[in-house]
C-alpha cells in the first residue's frame, strides 16, 4: 500500500518549508502569565457503516482558571475510509472578548468551516497521527468589518501508552504534537502550536487529558521607508485540561487514538 509513504512525503515537504521560513525568526516577546484551555468533547466513533462525528465546547482564559476571554462551539461529521484514513467536514463559532469588559460583547466572532484528512500509523507502542486541514474563516469585528481568510494546518501527533501496548481501557498514555498554521495570503507562517501531556483512558467511553501547550503567533518581516523589521513572534503557555466522552457503539475500533479535535 502506497498511502503511508505518501503521508511521509507530505510531512517532509511541509517541515522543510517551515524550517526555511522560521530560520530568521526573533526571540519570543517577554513572558506572559500562563493561561488555561478547558476542552469538553463528545464523539461518535465510526462503526461498521464508517460514519461518525463530534461536538466540542472550549473555553480559554488569560490566567490560570480566571480571566476567561474566549470560547468555541464546534462539531462535524467523519467518515473512515479504513482504520488509518479518516475524512472530516466540520464547522464552528469562535468568540473573543476583552476579559476586563465581558459585558461589552465580543471583540470579534468567527464562523469557520473546514475539510480534513487524518492518517494514522500504529508502530507497536508508538502511534502517529498526521492531520491535514483546510479552513475557510468568516470574521465579524466590533467595528463592523467582515474579512474572510483561508488557512492551512498540519499537525503531527504522537501517542505512547505506558501500561499497555495499545490505548484501551485503563491505559495511561503520553501525548505530544506540533501543529503549524499557514496563511496563503501572508504572513505565510502564521502560528505554531506545541503540546505535551499525559492522559488516562478509563474506558472506551471516557478519556481524561492534562498538559501544556505553547501557542506562538508570527508577524511577517517588513521593509518600509528604508527600515527593515524582522519576523516577530509572541507566545503564551497554557494549561490544557480535556475530557472526552465517546457515545457507546459496540462495533467501533477497540484502539481509537485519543486525539483532540481542536
TrEMBL record:
<protein>
    <submittedName>
        <fullName>DUF2490 domain-containing protein</fullName>
    </submittedName>
</protein>
<dbReference type="InterPro" id="IPR019619">
    <property type="entry name" value="DUF2490"/>
</dbReference>
<dbReference type="Pfam" id="PF10677">
    <property type="entry name" value="DUF2490"/>
</dbReference>
<keyword id="KW-0732">Signal</keyword>
<feature type="signal peptide">
    <location>
        <begin position="1"/>
        <end position="24"/>
    </location>
</feature>
Amino acid at each position: 500500500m502506497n498511502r503511508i509513504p505518501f503521508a511521509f512525503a507530505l510531512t517532509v515537504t511541509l517541515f522543510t518549508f517551515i524550517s526555511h521560513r522560521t530560520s530568521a525568526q526573533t526571540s519570543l516577546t517577554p513572558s506572559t502569565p500562563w493561561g488555561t484551555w478547558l476542552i469538553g468533547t463528545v464523539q461518535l466513533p465510526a462503526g461498521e457503516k464508517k460514519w461518525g462525528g463530534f461536538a466540542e465546547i472550549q473555553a480559554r482564559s488569560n490566567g490560570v482558571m480566571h480571566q476567561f476571554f474566549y470560547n468555541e462551539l464546534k462539531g462535524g461529521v467523519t467518515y473512515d475510509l479504513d482504520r488509518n484514513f479518516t475524512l472530516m467536514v466540520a464547522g464552528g463559532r469562535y468568540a473573543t472578548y476583552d476579559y476586563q469588559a465581558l459585558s461589552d460583547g465580543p471583540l470579534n466572532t468567527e464562523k469557520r468551516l473546514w475539510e480534513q484528512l487524518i492518517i494514522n500509523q500504529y508502530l507497536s507502542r508508538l502511534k502517529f497521527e498526521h492531520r491535514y486541514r483546510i479552513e475557510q474563516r468568516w470574521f465579524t469585528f466590533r467595528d463592523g468589518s467582515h474579512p474572510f481568510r483561508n488557512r492551512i494546518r498540519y499537525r503531527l501527533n504522537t501517542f505512547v501508552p505506558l501500561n499497555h501496548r495499545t490505548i484501551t481501557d485503563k491505559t495511561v498514555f503520553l501525548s505530544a504534537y506540533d501543529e503549524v498554521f499557514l496563511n496563503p495570503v501572508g504572513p505565510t507562517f502564521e502560528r505554531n502550536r506545541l503540546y505535551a501531556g499525559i492522559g488516562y483512558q478509563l474506558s472506551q467511553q471516557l478519556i481524561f487529558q492534562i498538559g501544556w501547550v505553547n501557542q506562538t503567533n508570527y508577524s511577517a518581516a517588513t521593509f518600509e521607508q528604508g527600515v527593515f523589521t524582522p519576523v516577530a513572534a509572541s507566545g503564551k503557555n497554557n494549561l490544557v485540561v480535556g475530557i472526552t466522552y465517546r457515545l457507546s457503539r459496540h462495533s467501533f475500533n477497540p484502539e481509537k487514538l485519543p486525539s483532540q479535535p481542536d
